[in-house]
Amino acid sequence: MHALRKTVACPAQSVSYANADPLLIVGGHGSRLVDARGRTFLDTRNNVAHVGHANPRVTGAVAAAASAPCPNTRYLHPNQAALAERLLATMPAPLGSGHVFLVNSGSEANDLALRLCRTWARQRHDGECGVVVLTHAYHGHTVSCIAISPYKHSHPKERGKPAWVEVADAPDAYRGGGRADAVEAACARLEARGITLDALFVESGASVAGVIVPPEGFLAAAFKSVRRRGGIVVADEVQTGLGRLGNDLWYAFEAHGVVPDIVTIGKPVGNGLPLAAVVVTRKVSDVFATGPEYFNTFGGNPVSCAAGLAVLDAIEADDLRGNATRVGAALKAGFERLKCKGSAWCVVGDVRGGGLFLGVDLVTGVSKAPATAEASYICARLVTEHRILTSLDGPGDNVLVVKPPLCFSMSDAKEFLAALEVELGASNALPAGFLFTRTPT
Ligand code: PMP
After folding, report:
1. Measured in angstroms, how far is the CA atom of residue 266 from the centroid of ligand 1?
2. CA pair distance 270, 250, nearest whole angstrom
């Protein structure tokens, strides 16, 4: 199967564990996945299977919707309106009385959000729509999303950012950088180039950047800088939305006392089916409505919407936000305890995040230098010796990004912590010639 994949797929589409034993998943349930060789793995990384792999509530709803006609979104359908209404109910005012666009992926949601920002800009001035983003942010794979994703456009083979984009230093409490006025400074840099600031795109918990959570006051200051200039704010909640951070929150931005103008929701809402959403205030939506019609062939299709409704039902019925709070707290405390368990070759330097969105920053020895190869080795050991699936992210590819299905249990947490403790143990060391591989998001 791997040989076939290598023949038919561009090498830019990487496979996890490609240098060892790529997995062919054939089954699973909850926080477990089963491969073609009958091995069961604990999944600590899949934030798409938000309410658990093969959640029966979701599979049942999807099967029922898939056996009925799937007309396009120019016809009325109860699933579509119901999902939009349910998503609005998760939003604070004034977003809660805003409008919803249902789309097919996080990238499509952010692409549409950018289009909404451009429409907003156009009624203000004739120039380019100026956008500020944070360092190492990732907002999606389309051409427009790459323009606002430093994680992609700063790659040596890319052309860098366009003139209408400015990058603000992300706040990183561990390694430094990202002063409270970072967004203000980025707005000023845009203006110095003659470009008007119209929008800020921000993750309130940046996953690809290595679980960077803004400190108190950072987002409030950033929103103020943008709004003082008449701009609007897009909160990218593609990774953090729908209760991942626990604490009775639906979205990560809520912990910062701010309310964006646009929220994009992706991965978790379809539990694996192509479904994403853009929630926008009436103020911005009304401006967009004066432009050309918006039509999306597959966005809001009845099958994906059935999945979305079942996901929201499962979060509430199974108290998954409560579970994220409890299990996340136990996991975080366990990772903190591992700080003193590392050996000379690799240690836990920092633990951050909340709920079931946690980052474990693995560093070499006592320095803060990213333990890139060592972290990769540990992930390889976790899968081969303990059957635990993990992912690494951050600029140094050394941060274990822990974002399992929200049904991850206390015993799953104990199993993961025990395995990590073994692999961080003093007896291990990076073997000579170990081939570095990352396990991308
Ligand atoms: N925004 C964020 C924060 C993401 O992490 C991702 C995907 N990793 C996207 C947008 C793009 O979503 P998709 O892959 O569904 O297009």
Report:
1. 7
2. 15
Residue 208 CA: nearest ligand 1 atom is: 5
Query: Between 347 and 29, whose confidence is greater?
Result: 29
Which helix (DSSP H) or strand (DSSP E) does residue 40 occupy? strand 40-43
Q: Distance between CA atoms of 380 and 370, rounded to whole angstroms?
A: 17
The ranges of the chain annotated as CATH 3.40.640.10 are 56-317
Nearest residue by C-alpha to atom 5 in ligand 1: 239
| CA distances from residue 202 to 127, 213, 252, 289 in whole angstroms, order as listed | 22, 11, 11, 24
Q: How far is the CA of 272 from the centre of ligand 1 (A)?
A: 13
- From atom 7 of ligand 1, which residue's Cα is the shortest distance away? 140
Superfamily per CATH, domain 19-48+319-428: Aspartate Aminotransferase, domain 1 (3.90.1150.10)
Q: Provide residues with CB under 6 Å of ligand 1.
A: 105-107, 110, 138-141, 203, 207-208, 236, 238-239, 266-267, 441
Q: Whose CA is nearest to atom 12 of ligand 1?
A: 106
Amino acid 21: pLDDT: 78
Question: For strand 40-43 and strand 262-265, is the pairing parallel, antiparallel, or unpaired?
Answer: unpaired
Give the tens place of pLDDT for each residue, 195-210. 999 999 999 999 999 9
Cα torsion 93, 97, 101, 106 to 10°: value is: 10
Q: Which atom of ligand 1 is nearest to the CA of 441?
A: 8
Q: What distance in angstroms lies between residue 106's CA and the mean position of ligand 1's atoms?
A: 5
Every domain of the chain with CATH number 3.90.1150.10 lies at 19-48+319-428
56-317 carries CATH number 3.40.30.10: no
- Residue 18 structure tokens: 């490609």
- Give distance in angstroms: CA of 147 to centre of ligand 1: 14
Would you say the pTM of this structure is higher than 0.85? Answer: yes
Give the CA distances from residue 387 to residues 73, 360, 373, 398, 419, in Å, rounded to whole numbers and listed in that order.
43, 19, 20, 20, 9
Q: Return the bridge partners of 134, or none.
A: 168
pLDDT of residue 427: 55
